[in-house]
Amino acid sequence: MASENRVIEFYDALHQIPEMGFQEEKTSAYLAEKLESFGYEVSRGYGGTGVVGVLKGKMPGPVVGLRADMDALGHEIDGKAVAIHSCGHDSHCAMVLAAAEQFAETGIERGTLEILFQPAEETLFGASRMIADGAGKNLEMLFGIHLRPGQEAKMGQITPALHHGASYVVKAHIEGRTAHGARPHLGINAIHGASAVIQAVLGISPDPVIPSSIKATQIKGGGPVSNAIPAGAEVTFDVRSRSNQTMEQILTQMKVAIEQGAAAVGATGKMEIIGGVPAAEYDQEMIELAKEAIIEAVGEKGLMDELITPGGEDFHFFTQKIPGLKTAYLGLGCDLEPGLHDPNMSFNKEALKDGVKALVLLAQKALQR
């Protein structure tokens, strides 16, 4: 249909207005105005810049949603900070917008279609803030889509389930007591405390059946004086797990490890969770529905197995915070290179047509349930 071709037009327009998380003013205005022109009931301001469009069918039925993230990533180019759509969020919006236009053209026999354009996925807070503002509260089923790097999927391939892991950033704050370097017994060395904390945290043993990782990625401590015992230090940890339950266990043990590790040298340790996203928890019925849609869209050869990725995605807050919500999240092959989050990321835009087909077919099947 015409909307499958229009997706590239939408993409080209969105690609020219990259904006950072919670700053997507031009992007959300463009998307909202398009939805209004299609005939959707549009509400703005969810989570700051989020947009929700609603299209009702002729008869009552299920409430089905399509969600896309809007924000770009920050990069430094030639010494200047710039926003670039290096994770494909502009393409996600374009595909969902084209699908929305197609439903407006054909109409809906039964049920309600909700279109959600979400801010700030990269900050990890966008979905939560949209939900807190009431977005998605009536949804029964929700679907999303994301471009995949060439290492994971090729042009013409689509996975019915992109299994992200739980991903958290945790900071340990260590407080000691300053003293002269020649009189260390009068102080409490926060850097030594940080070292003890790192060892204690790395001593945590999660369930070996569940893939997990805990890594110290940043350490800060001391000041401009090299002969003073530092009174403060911070350690940042990147924490990942395939299981939400295992992640909860790790975080609980980290709190103890940080407190006791610091205490081992006489310091005080406190844990702060900077942010995080839950692991994917999909509904198998929706995955099967997605498989049917993908086969109709790109054929049997284009249907990939379910795909496990080490990355995180705040889409999964919708599942976690909206009771009874059933979800599936597609991964689109598009010959993307060299990789996501690279400022030089590029892909075959023709793949977006496949994405639109799959989303439309999946939403149609869900609305008929």
Question: How would you explain this protein's 3D organization?
Answer:
By secondary structure, the chain is α/β, with parallel strands linked by helices. The chain folds into 2 domains: 2-164 and 280-367, Aminopeptidase (3-Layer(aba) Sandwich), CATH 3.40.630.10; 166-277, Alpha-Beta Plaits, CATH 3.30.70.360. The chain contains 9 helices and 17 strands. The protein has helices at residues 2-15, 25-38, 89-106, 126-132, 190-202, 244-263, 284-298, 316-321, 351-367, and strands spanning 41-46, 50-56, 59-69, 73-77, 80-84, 110-118, 141-149, 158-159, 162-163, 166-175, 179-180, 212-221, 228-229, 232-241, 268-277, 307-308, 326-336. Strands 1-2-6-3-7-17-8 form a 7-stranded mixed β-sheet. Strands 12-14-10-15 form a 4-stranded antiparallel β-sheet, covered by helices on one side. A two-stranded antiparallel sheet has the order 4-5. A hairpin with a 2-residue loop joins strand 4 and strand 5. The protein is elongated. The mean pLDDT is 96.
Please write out the topology:
Blueprint: H1 2-15, H2 25-38, E1 41-46, E2 50-56, E3 59-69, E4 73-77, E5 80-84, H3 89-106, E6 110-118, H4 126-132, E7 141-149, E8 158-159, E9 162-163, E10 166-175, E11 179-180, H5 190-202, E12 212-221, E13 228-229, E14 232-241, H6 244-263, E15 268-277, H7 284-298, E16 307-308, H8 316-321, E17 326-336, H9 351-367
Parallel strand pairs: 3-6, 3-7, 7-17, 9-16
Antiparallel strand pairs: 1-2, 2-6, 4-5, 8-17, 10-14, 10-15, 11-13, 12-14
